[in-house]
Design a protein that fits this description.
homodimer; alpha/beta; 2 domains; 5-stranded mixed beta sheet; 12 strands; transferase (chains A, B); EC 2.7.1.2 (chains A, B); Glucokinase (chains A, B); glucokinase activity (chains A, B); ATPase_NBD (chains A, B)
Amino acid sequence: MPAPSSPITQKHTPPYYWGIDIGGTSMKCGLVDHEGHTVSFEQIPTEEAAGPQAAVKRLTKLMVETEQRTGTTGLVKRIGMGAPGPMDLPRGLLVAPPQLPTWNDFPIVSRLSEATGRGVSFLNDANAAAYGEFWLGSGAKQSSMILLTLGTGVGGGIIVENELLNGVNSFGSECGHILVDSAPDAQLCGWGGGRGQLEAYASATGVATIARSRLQTAPDSQLHRCLDAEGEGLTSKQVHDAAVAGDQLALSIVDETARWLGIAITTLVHTVDPGNVVLGGAMDFGGAECPVGKRFLDGIRSEFRERTFPNVYAGTTIRFATLGSDAGYLGAAGYAKKEAATP
Amino acid sequence: MPAPSSPITQKHTPPYYWGIDIGGTSMKCGLVDHEGHTVSFEQIPTEEAAGPQAAVKRLTKLMVETEQRTGTTGLVKRIGMGAPGPMDLPRGLLVAPPQLPTWNDFPIVSRLSEATGRGVSFLNDANAAAYGEFWLGSGAKQSSMILLTLGTGVGGGIIVENELLNGVNSFGSECGHILVDSAPDAQLCGWGGGRGQLEAYASATGVATIARSRLQTAPDSQLHRCLDAEGEGLTSKQVHDAAVAGDQLALSIVDETARWLGIAITTLVHTVDPGNVVLGGAMDFGGAECPVGKRFLDGIRSEFRERTFPNVYAGTTIRFATLGSDAGYLGAAGYAKKEAATP
């Protein structure tokens, strides 16, 4: 169990909110107070094969027990739940979700609401992470923000004047699927379509694919050693490690990834002009703590500066996220708080 | 004076709002009732050289006289004013606007407000047009919408859940400046930067430039006749006319423009998922009334379908605007109405 970014504390302010971050393998469950302090955090297996009704039971049990233990019974106002898409937000269910096939079309929101007797705010997991950073992380005290999550894929979340863009088709801010490369032979996204879309360039998968395709041009690169007997393998983490060791090919891939992100951020900023762009997810080349991560961020800023207007560049910060993998449950709780306050 | 799209009628519903659409050469001034009917419409010269204070005087005089004539004195609630950017919305002024150099840094909102004794809602002209289509045109009765205006440049406006995206740097929804072409030799926008941005491809200027660059490849095209002695000239209107006459080069340029717009719309929809995309402006290849305009729209839809997800394609309409050049003043009035209602 990872330590939550917002420390579990004895001093907390009622009312409380549950933030649930559903994933393909585990469900993160945080009980969060009104100011965003985590009262209790637990990560339990999703057990996807057992189906969503079993998950509802285990979530409900966890909530009841946790509230008894922490003395918050009767003080929890609402549940927020983020889940991977595709989803139908108004109907409160997932639609053919590749990570959770047994959950397809199951009315998860109404069932969890019935089981707990509480209202459930439902949102896309990347949007939940964005709302978490917006409430408590890198976007705190701002009115608008874009989060790009660089992981196995690329997700995104957009907040404009304190409102999350969920989208008319529950497809709001799928920033991994904006176009960055118009070349006819541009890379394809994992979903099989989406030629030239950001996810094919700035995800862990995309970076590894690009690195493999560049190996021929760099016979001396240490990345050759990462390939397995079939010529496969080689991960974005290995690209990062090689870049830290000064490998030229690895560094050029960091720079190239930064360039694609700079293009994507230009397009996103010219669309919603949020003033703040935050980069989250594990595929951050070490983030703010690492010289390669710093080079990555500088490269992104430099490409953005070249493509935008001086006043827009000056009025837009680009930085790394601070909540790590806690952003999802914290954002789900924060969104529940927001919806509880909305008449 | 063009006939307003919403006919001037004797039956109107108080209160009233002024919608002012400021342009480099003229100012459109519409007195609009609560339901969007135009009570009076006048277009007066901007007289940019005389400066903005003179414009404030003439606008104020026009308002007083019109209200006396139409019996609406005392019934006008607020003024909406759209203007070309760049601008600083919170400060209520234009910043180095290329079309209105004498207006630079002049506090137009506070001066107009002082002169008329009324509140002034200030917005970007393309955003005003978007709000007009959203209130009374192709986006009516929807919750969200994107407008792309295809004119000398490409502008845009985005409404999400009834709220206009104005942007933190007053740069919201500059959709002409999203990336569509990542090639190193991609075309440049008029502002001198912005390589590969939509405006260089889907504006009247962009289409004419592309047509000229393709002439060599099509010796039989009737577009050769449009060039002047210097090899210049050739407008997007002439490309449209030639396409109507069946000219193959002209038709291929219509198709190419559609392809770039399909790419741009994919990116915009994957960012905000509005369910509705509306195409306005004169560079519409004849729009819905014309077979070439229909082919243009079909081409856009087809490119979008290829690049997006089936449910997003199914959940998104793309159509032409219906308010023509009245969208700006109507949207400014509608936005004034909206802001008058906001506590």
